[in-house]
Structure to design on (284 residues):
């Protein structure tokens, strides 16, 4: 073998060895195992996702990056293709999101309810009010402090609807303050300032267990205070890079019987009743 043949032989051998060592870059793409979940702060602050996400990861092999924001912000992420799947609780905004083609396979997952909370002294005397609208009118008339999340979340959307039903425009009033924060943080602010606020039941009970907030449930049980959660897959036709298989796997997991059974018991040991109620397969 002359010098030129040796050079050609070595070059060809190196080429073959390199191809054998890195076949993945030349073969079909490996399935994306990272999954971005954009969800409302209540599912995180209540501790529910601390239980569900490890279960999902163990069952499927996916690694979930959870981004806990308000429902409005979660859907904005979906609109930009910055999330793969959403778990949110703002039904009217969700319908608009679906209508614009940003999401597919919107599924009912669970519900709990919203509460009007306030200090034990109840300066606006809303305890015993027949409706949230009546309670909000009393707060406005008394000038008692009300803390709003002001973050375009599902809770904020519900609150705005309740103010509208009461015929009150609170923005700009001295007694009305927007925190721009998530549910847990807004609860802490309300506790420090002895103000009223709207909260989902799950987050309130979970945080009040950890640290007595000094806030009491003053109005609850009205049908308008129902708080409904859906899981939505981001539309891969809009954003081809989203992890569509992972989003579907998570969506299926949330409505699967074992997950729904876990949701039905979550919080019972600590609070005497569940923080959420499973709804998969039901009609709204």
């Amino acid at each position: 073998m002359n010098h030129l043949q040796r050079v050609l032989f070595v070059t060809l051998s190196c080429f073959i060895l390199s191809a054998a060592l890195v076949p993945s870059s030349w073969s079909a793409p490996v399935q994306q195992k990272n999954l971005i979940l954009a969800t409302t702060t209540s599912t995180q602050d209540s501790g529910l996702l601390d239980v569900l996400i490890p279960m999902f990861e163990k069952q499927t092999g996916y690694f979930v990056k959870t981004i806990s924001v308000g429902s409005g912000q979660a859907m904005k992420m979906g609109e930009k293709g910055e999330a793969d799947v959403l778990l949110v609780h703002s039904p009217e905004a969700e319908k608009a999101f679906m209508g614009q083609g940003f999401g597919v396979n919107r599924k009912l997952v669970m519900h709990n309810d919203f509460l009007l909370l306030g200090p034990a002294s109840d300066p606006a005397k809303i305890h015993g009010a027949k409706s949230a609208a009546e309670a909000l009118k009393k707060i406005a008339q008394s000038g008692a402090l009300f803390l709003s999340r002001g973050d375009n979340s599902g809770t904020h959307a519900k609150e705005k609807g309740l103010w509208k039903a009461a015929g009150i425009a609170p923005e700009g009033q001295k007694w009305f303050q927007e925190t721009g924060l998530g549910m847990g943080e807004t609860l802490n602010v309300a506790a420090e300032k002895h103000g009223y606020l709207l909260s989902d039941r799950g987050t309130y009970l979970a945080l009040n267990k950890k640290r007595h907030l000094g806030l009491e449930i003053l109005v609850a049980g009205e049908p308008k205070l129902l708080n409904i959660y859906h899981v939505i897959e981001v539309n891969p036709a809009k954003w081809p890079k989203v992890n569509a298989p992972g989003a579907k796997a998570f969506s299926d997991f949330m409505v699967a019987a074992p997950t729904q059974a876990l949701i039905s018991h979550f919080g019972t040991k600590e609070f005497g009743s569940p923080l959420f109620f499973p709804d998969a397969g039901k009609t709204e």
In short: The first strand starts at residue 34 and ends at 40. Residues 189 and 246 are 37 Å apart (CA to CA). Residues 3-30 have pLDDT under 50 and may be disordered.
